[in-house]
Amino acid sequence: xxxxxxxxxxxxxxxxxxxxxxxxxxxxxxxxxxxxxxxxxxxxxxxxxxxxxxxxxxxxxxxxxxxxxxxxxxxxxxxxxxxxxxxxxxxxxxxxxxxxxxxxxxxxxxxxxxxxxxxxxxxxxxxxxxxxxxxxxxxxxxxxxxxxxxxxxxxxxxxxxxxxxxxxxxxxxxxxxxxxxxxxxxxxxxxxxxxxxxxxxxxxxxxxxxxxxxxxxxxxxxxxxxxxxxxxxxxxxxxxxxxxxxxxxxxxxxxxxxxxxxxxxxxxxxxxxxxxxxxxxxxxxxxxxxxxxxxxxxxxxxxxxxxxxxxxxxxxxxxxxxxxxxxxxxxxxxxxxxxxxxxx
Length: 344
Description:
CATH superfamily of the largest domain: Gcn5-related N-acetyltransferase (GNAT)
Oligomer: single chain
CATH class of the largest domain: Alpha Beta
Number of strands: 15
Number of helices: 11
Radius of gyration: 20 Å
Number of domains: 2
CATH architecture of the largest domain: 3-Layer(aba) Sandwich
Helix content: 25-40%
Strand content: 25-35%
Structural class: alpha+beta
Order of helices and strands: EHHEEEEHEEHHEHHEEEHEHEEEHH
């Protein structure tokens, strides 16, 4: 077996492997790393394992760092999971060891792996975060019929009041980004630059789709991005404007994505990470999603770091409070410069 850095000409083989692998998701696709490099200028290291000319494993890595620091190798940045996909545990461990050697050669002290699978000996599931996944029936009609009456009513309300949902691509980016930036400012979080989404749409192609919900008067009220793999649809970003909460646009947005996934033969809908018991966990749970473990591990050299306690620091809480009070234009200018260096 040979492990090497994949090149641009390996993209088709890489993506074919991701599509065929039982645990592959859209974040594993080669285009995610291409978008990281194109939008934010970070170096990427797509490790490819081959045996007799066939791909038998992958480990996508990106070097994320603040200025004047050595940073860390991350699999994968800006999402819940990445990590190794391999034909066997032995190949998985070989890819991980190769990543550690790569970090040593590049003088990058830390490797961060986020995965839905164990990443080596001693790996334990994250004790604070879970991945919320819904198994889909064969059609949106069957999915809707399985909802409780209250949920069916919440989904139906915005449609009865004249809201409409549209699913598309780059033509919806401006409407999505306008909602997204306002929502992230209100949450006190730096926002991705618009360029990130432009590059993501370009490099993932039809695997990436944008959905927007419009009020009866045409105002965009809620929007999100879904990423599609062979059997899994993932939703990394969804936002709604608080002034329209009375019309439930967020419910129509999620229903539109779920209906699309069910009607197009996808087996699972990945709502993303949540903290058990908190509001987002309960929101996803009402759709029928169930918690699945996430394995997030940090390595310093070859040593597995112990898990850090969950919770926000006082400094982070104060920074969020300040960010919420900043003008939107300032947040949109400064935010991408900060966000590019925040790997999660």
